[in-house]
Design a protein that fits this description.
The chain is α+β, with helices and mostly antiparallel strands. Helices cover 35% and strands 36% of the residues.
């Protein structure tokens, strides 16, 4: 009985140590410069329907179903998707718009696990064209913190963001 108690205490101590070592926040972003007018870029990024055209997750499940609610491109508009196990189920809602410079969304993942993140785009005029930064950020809570000790979120999600930015460049420069 004592051995079982020591084993349980050891596991509990290990879980506590891993939780406190783990990063409590995450932030992933990628940038690209496109040859398109800043107003055109901004309007397209505000559109949840346009986002679906170049989204890297759309190509992971061509049979994904998407429903849109609200007025596309305005605060409060929502896209809800249901896809395969790579895409899962969730929704994205536009929560903040600063004309021609910033768009923020709330990403609510429902399956395969529940979590909420903040997605964002920053847009600015540069000498070469329009610079777009696409990212997402959020907080790691228990038990997700335990996974984050062993996982690099930037390496896991970054390639999807790079593909999305390249696809957006192709889409917007047509």
């Amino acid at each position: 009985m004592k051995i079982l108690l020591y084993i349980l205490l050891g596991i509990g101590l290990l879980v506590a140590i891993l939780h406190f070592m783990a990063p409590k926040t995450y932030h992933v972003e990628r940038k690209i410069i496109v040859s398109a007018n800043i107003d055109t870029v901004f309007k397209s990024l505000c559109s949840l329907k346009d986002q679906q055209v170049w989204s890297p997750w759309g190509s992971k499940d061509p049979n994904m179903t998407i429903e849109y609610n609200g007025i596309d491109g305005e605060i409060g508009s929502i896209s809800h998707w249901v896809g395969n196990k790579e895409v899962g189920e969730g929704e994205q809602e536009i929560t903040k718009i600063e004309p021609t410079s910033y768009i923020e969304t709330e990403l609510r993942f429902l399956k395969p696990f529940e979590s909420t993140s903040t997605g964002f785009f920053t847009i600015r005029q540069v000498a070469e064209g329009t610079e777009v930064t696409w990212g997402f950020k959020g907080n790691n809570t228990f038990p997700t913190t335990l996974m984050m000790v062993f996982m690099n979120i930037d390496k896991a999600i970054g390639p999807d963001f790079e593909k999305g930015m390249a696809d957006f460049k192709s889409f917007i420069e047509k």
